[in-house]
Specification:
This protein is an alpha/beta fold and 139 residues long. The chain has a single domain, classed as Rossmann fold, CATH 3.40.50. It is built from 4 helices and 4 strands, in the order E-H-E-H-H-E-E-H. Helix 1 links the parallel strand 1 and strand 2. Helix 1 crosses helix 4 and helix 2 packs across helix 4. The longest helix is centred in the last third of the chain and has 21 residues.
């Protein structure tokens, strides 16, 4: 059996998609191949997102925003978009979901926490739909 692969896409790949990717890695305990990318990547991870994820025991310090490529979409079973609009290429046979989430750009950690928590819940549901066991804690 092969591992399912998930690609998370948002515009800057500095907040929402990074949080979702980090939760997927942590909660699936490596059972899912994870990618994240942006249609117009930022230079670095949003500092408030980094701080909010540290509160969960997940350090994004080594992560860097990446440019969305056609290859990344083709290599993924599931593509989750988060406000990237028409920038994400569509390929037959892929599962697509669009998660409507507030953008953490320019927000403080207090505003990022509810976004983070919603993403964690959505990732947990996604993993269940992929029949991937979820670890109890992300730490």
């Amino acid at each position: 059996m092969t591992r399912p692969s998930v690609l998370y896409v948002c515009v800057h790949n500095a907040g929402r998609s990074q949080m979702a990717a980090a939760y997927t890695r942590a909660l699936s305990d490596g059972a899912v191949e994870v990618r994240s990318a942006g249609s117009a990547p930022a230079d670095s991870i949003n500092p408030a997102v980094h701080a909010a994820m540290l509160e969960e025991g997940i350090d994004l310090a080594a992560e860097r925003p990446k440019l969305l490529t056609t290859d990344a979409v083709q290599a993924s079973d599931v593509v989750i978009t988060m406000g990237c609009g028409d920038a994400c290429p569509i390929f037959p046979g892929k599962r697509y979901e669009d998660w409507q989430l507030d953008d953490p750009a320019g927000q403080g950690v207090e505003a990022v926490r509810p976004i983070r928590d919603e993403i964690k819940g959505r990732v947990t549901a996604l993993l269940a739909s992929l029949d991937v066991p979820v670890r109890e804690a992300a730490r």
